[in-house]
Design a protein that fits this description.
Structural class: alpha/beta
Distance between the termini: 48 Å
Number of strands: 4
Shape: globular
Order of helices and strands: EHEHEHEH
CATH class: Alpha Beta
CATH topology: Rossmann fold
Number of domains: 1
Strand content: 15-25%
Radius of gyration: 16 Å
Length: 126
């Protein structure tokens, strides 16, 4: 079963974490056949953390877990934290296929998305 795990930083601010949870729910509702299940996890401060979220996905039948680092830049969490956590999970779950996607800021089309947002926002205010 193909699944997607969105990995965000985590915040002391509950609303910030809830925003990531709502994003995962929206993607889950709209992913069609691409993913059977979409979940989120956090690196720090909030739950579930990566290991727990991966365990839950596997308990729900995941055989293929795609990880989306929900970060705009390739800082320490993207460059080492997430890959290290996933490597540990690969050792614990050798029969599960893991793939880490590029972080959000590296995705093709992000500059167009930002410009469209700015354009729409500035046109509304005129």
């Amino acid at each position: 079963m193909r699944t997607l795990l969105i990995v965000a930083h985590g915040s002391r601010r509950k609303d910030s974490n809830d925003e990531v949870r709502r994003l995962a729910e929206r993607i889950n509702e709209n992913s069609g056949p691409a993913f059977h299940l979409v979940a989120c996890s956090f690196l720090e401060i909030s739950s579930p953390q990566i290991d727990s979220a991966i365990g839950d996905l596997i308990d729900n039948g995941a055989t293929d877990i795609t990880i989306l680092p929900y970060f705009l830049a390739a800082g320490t969490h993207v460059a080492t934290g997430i890959p290290h956590a996933v490597e540990e999970e690969k050792i614990k779950h050798p029969n599960i296929h893991f793939e880490i996607l590029p972080h959000l800021g590296a995705l093709q089309g992000i500059s167009t998305l930002v410009l469209n947002h700015i354009y729409k926002s500035t046109m509304k205010n005129r």
